[in-house]
Every structure is written in C-alpha cells, then in structure tokens.
Design a protein that fits this description.
Layout lengths: L2 E6 L16 H17 L4 E6 L2 E8 L4
Antiparallel strand pairs: 1-2, 2-3
Length: about 60
C-alpha cells in the first residue's frame, strides 16, 4: 500500500505539490499536519488522501485546519 496526497485548487482542479509517498496512512497524515500551512501559502486550497490511487477521504479544505 502506498499513500499519497492529491493537491487541488478551489474548483477541485489539480495543482502542483510535493510528490511524497508514504507506507501507511498515519505517516501521511503526520507529514501533512506539519506542512499544510506551506501548502496553503503555495496555492493549495484542498487535499485528498489516496491509497494506491483510490480516495481514502477528501477533499479536505486547508482553511479549516
């Protein structure tokens, strides 16, 4: 299993973000909790967590963090 984040603008369109890959969900969430302000400042409006390309949850707005 590989977990990744999909970064999106306010319309749900993909935007560039770090191409990080994680072995488990908790590792992905821990990483995200430390970088979300930087992502938001870079223009990411919402994110979706993926497991092997399948949505786990999201989209999750960064402004609600």
């Amino acid at each position: 299993m590989t977990f990744t984040w999909r970064y999106e603008d306010g319309d749900g369109q993909p935007v560039d973000g770090p191409a990080e890959r994680f072995d488990d969900q908790s590792e992905a969430e821990e990483w995200f909790s430390s970088v979300w302000p930087d992502l938001h400042h870079a223009g990411v409006v919402q994110v979706t967590l993926l497991e092997d390309g399948t949505e786990v949850y999201g989209p999750m707005p960064l402004s609600a963090q």
